[in-house]
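Known limitations

Files may contain more than one protein. Parsers should not assume a single record per file. Below, a two-record file is shown to illustrate correct handling: read the sequence, read the token line, then continue until end of file.
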Amino acid sequence: MALAEFELIREHFQRAGTRADVVLGVGDDCALLTVPAGMQLAVSLDLLVSGVHFLPDVAPEALGWKALAVNLSDLAAMGAEPAWVTLGLTLPAADAGWLAAFCRGFYALAAEHGVELVGGDTTRGPLAIAVQVHGFVAPGAALTRAGARPGDLICVSGTPGFAALGLARCLGRTELPEPLAATALERLERPQPRVALGRALRGLATACIDVSDGLAQDLGHILEASGVGASVEVERVPRPPLADADAALQAALAGGDDYELCFTLPPGRLPGLAAAAAAGGCACSVIGRIEAAPGLRLRRADGSLLPLARGGYEHFG
């Protein structure tokens, strides 16, 4: 059943408030929000376009989850505490069933992280989703890409590469055995933003980024921002348990869409990594070291350099 625009807003987006810092939420020309005293506001926006960021036939409930997850991942990379979100939807039609499912996924993840929807917009057109998240972090406590120093260890959370395998399977480019196929699809469609890990890394990590376009490429952003280089020991990079070891490694290094965290820390802080991983509910692996010489070197166990079959994702590459 199709809905008129304001019916759509009332039915799906006007909800009882859950946060005391929301003075006025959905339903007026602007939201009125109170930033806690002594905190900085961290803001990020991602635009997801059908056929570019997600497959056109993806389940709407999974899409609602992922649309918020990829934005919460940006807050996680900064060590910020999520608070508010705005949502812009361009829809081919105001399909009530599709919207109800989308909102189930969106609100389920929002509830997990104490996030309240405070505004947005809807319009007709090709399916696209714009989500802007807002979070809090104390002055000087935010993690950035620019703090890595020579000698720092390079770490990554979780197991990158699953999402790339899930996409390849959906596109008919690979066959995966069960339960690997189910795990890969879950990681692709319902990534887990590492918000708790990001908070635990404040004061521990020197630089951090979320892995959205491929581990090697996103680590390269840390190197560029910090003015350093790095060596990664490819045998230490966690990867999916795929029979084709080379394909698994390439997926882990260049696949993207994992939304894990890649971060650096001085060796003297390594004892704190186990506690941070426990707080974040995920494994963290040391995969290399920051060096003064510029560039990223992917080293095999015998010391030879590994070439990547392809780089990470680029929209205009």
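...continuing to the second record:
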Amino acid sequence: MRADATGRVLHDPKGGSFWFDAGALCLDFAHTGGEGRYAVFETLHEPADLAEWLSQPPLAAILTVPATAGELTAAKALRQAIWEAAHARAARRALPCGAVDVINHAAAAASLVPELAADGTTARWATPVGAVQALSTLAREMIGLLSGPLSERFRVCAGDNCPLVFVDSSRPGARRWCAMERCGNRHKLRALRARRATEP
């Protein structure tokens, strides 16, 4: 339930993986797959895949009610809406009305409720814990980002043809890359080659 421990390992269908921290859990969720050309990155194939993703830290929402096929469909719709809204905000475009409607609809459901454990030092989610509640929590986080102090900090990775989107919460607000070890290093390598090519 730590709100500051975001980030997930992303896997490339062509091979390789890397750690990507989108800066917010809802944005991490937006990178679990996608539509069209992003379908090759799909990780939520079955309701159980959704339940597994939600159960991981920092959300740690271990469902007490099994996820359904309908909830998986709703999750993918919310994921797409978050993706579209984040990219629109990063490009300083108006948010798509359809994406706003989906996010608002998901947020309207009851969200996860934190509960202090009997030891008085740890917390958990009060039961029942359902997928709809977890999705509402993600949608509400996205609303908070879009309407809060980080609303102008949405960025798309500056790497060539890299569509990964993140919110830059660093103090200087100078983050450019999805991950330094991926697109950042590729950029540095290309710049080095370009300099060497122009040297006498």
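Parsers that stop after the first record will miss the second one. For reference, the second record is described as follows. The chain has one domain: 8-155.
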